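Model it.
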Amino acid sequence: MRARSVLHSGREPSPPNQHAIDAAWSFLRHAPFGVIAIGRDATVLAINPAASKLLGYGAEEVEGESIASILRAPRGESHVPPGACAAPEEAREVEVVTRSGDVLPVGLRLLPLESLDGSLQGTIALFQDLREQKALEEQWRRRDRLASLGALAAGVAHEIRNPLAGIGTSAQVMKRRLEVGDPRAQFIDLILEEVSRLDRIVTGLLQFARPAAPKLQRQSILPALEKALTLVHEVAVRQNVLLRVDRADSVPDVYVDLDQILQVILNVLMNALQALDQGGELTIEVGPVRKRLAERSRIGRRSGDRLGTSRQAPLLDLVEVRIKDNGPGIPAAVLARVFDPFYTTRTQGTGLGLSICQTIIREHGGLISIESVVGQGTSVLIDLPVEKRHGDRRGNPR
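Modeled.
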């Protein structure tokens, strides 16, 4: 009550003691959000470490500099007007350009900068990185798209499969009735080829819409890798691609469905070989690692899956398969969409291969990710946990 009476007495508050100054300084130093103090002339008076880290500027570089060159929008204007902020403003979402040229979404709020006597000295800008929030919002949107797309795909696939089978059977009967050498046979062969292609697309639709639950057994993934390499060997020889395998001395067993893992590895290898159509080198590295998987999307492909609360991913013992090529690489705009269903840059592709691979690896409790640099090549990382995580995910999707 004593502090309350002082505040309402009309007397000026006492200057802060050293403990209060230390507390304020410690708060600014360790705050997880950016804080910049700006004078009336729109120059930077002080910047805290979080703001320096987010924007890429050191305190000694920006103090005395114009805020317009530090906290600037992509189009060049400043987010902080000159003068003093008279009253706290509502938080707003803006974009700022960092020192490296990256565009960063932040939540910005402007507050008055007051001296001890209450006079306005400028503005305090508080801002927080919104990239994680944006990623979570995108996950929600992706979940809605996938749910709608999955339901549509399953319905369309069933509607197509029956008449497709009828077309294929009828074409085969017609071909058998033709004389040997009849030129019309080539048109029937074309029909059968297209029916076969459509059937593969329908199969992919069903796999995407209703992924089969993996039958997990503790076993080595090396047999699946060896079989996949055997299957692609002739293609590699034909394309003059050198295959290299770098296997650790000891590779732990993992809980996997070997057929599904073979499907994933084979798909990735074939994608890499298609990128190396003019020859090159394809390296497969397999071994144990211990690391944190990237934050899981918390979005499953089954009706019972739900969005969980955010938490730091734990350190895990993993077996990592890294498949890297020295091909042309993938542009950033394409890389951001490689796991989107039906997105493909190939005229003959369905755009479902990597989407299905991602679903399979997630069902195993693992992660598949892609790193690429244009002109240098692409690496696909398949991380599978040594501990059995599939059962836990069924009861508590993460």
